[in-house]
Amino acid sequence: MPVDRDHVLRTAAALLTRKATATMDEVAKAAGISRATLHRQFAGRDALVRALESLGIAECEAALDTARIEEGPAADAVRRLVREIEPSAGLLAFLYTENQLFEGAEQNAGWARIDDRVAALFRRGQAAGEFRIDLSPVWLTEALYGLLASAAWAVAEGRVAPKDFTHMIVELLLGGALRQTNQ
After folding, report:
1. How far is 163 from 52, CA to CA, in rounded Å?
2. What angle, rounded to 10 degrees, do the helices at 74-85 and 45-67 form?
3. Which residues of the chain have pLDDT under 70?
4. Burial per residue of 116-145, b for 16 or more beta-carbon CB atoms within 10 angstroms, e otherwise
5. pLDDT tens track for 53-83
6. How far apart are CA 173 and CA 130, in angstroms?
7. Are 176 and 159 in contact (CB under 8 A)?
């Protein structure tokens, strides 16, 4: 019987999101396959993480497309993006920390595309006068990633309610990024 690679990846993503130190044996067990079968699909943890990275990139790009971040006010686009990315936030939180360990100077081209699109959203908001100009688009992009990861971990650990995910991120990010007007 052929192995459903997507099922294995999604199971691994769910497990590693909850327990980043899970072993390949634990991943195999969670996926309902033997360790040998898992190793035929992924030669080791690095190969599994690289496959998860590809899944994460695909899900981020799909969220960016669905959120239509090039349309409407930039603040609304940020809200849509956070809402669309929420289902993948746990996987992205895992990848965010995992990539810090072994990515080094070689950034995956997929992440570079995502970074460029998100930074362009913040630049657009700055050009429109919505966002502060004293914070670089690169910093705002990194801040968004950090908030997504932090919120995913807090939700996974039960420290905050899942229904507050989008609100927490958007209000903190935009509350600090919105240009203050004299009233």
Report:
1. 26
2. 140
3. 1, 99-107, 177-183
4. ebbbebbbbbbeeebbeeeeebeebbebbb
5. 889 999 999 999 999 999 999 999 999 999 9
6. 13
7. no
- The pLDDT tens digits for 125-137 are 999 999 999 999 9
CA 161 to chain centre: 18
What predicted TM-score, i.e. pTM, was given to this entire model? 0.85
Position 103 scores a pLDDT of 54
Dihedral, CA of residue 85, residue 158, residue 145 and residue 67, to nearest 10: 20
Contact 49, 108 (CB under 8 A): no
Neighbours of 155 (CB within 10 A): 20
- Which amino acid, one-letter code, is at 83? R
Provide the token pair at 30.
Answer: 């969670």
DSSP state of 180: P
> Degrees (nearest 5) of the Cα angle 60, 127, 138?
45
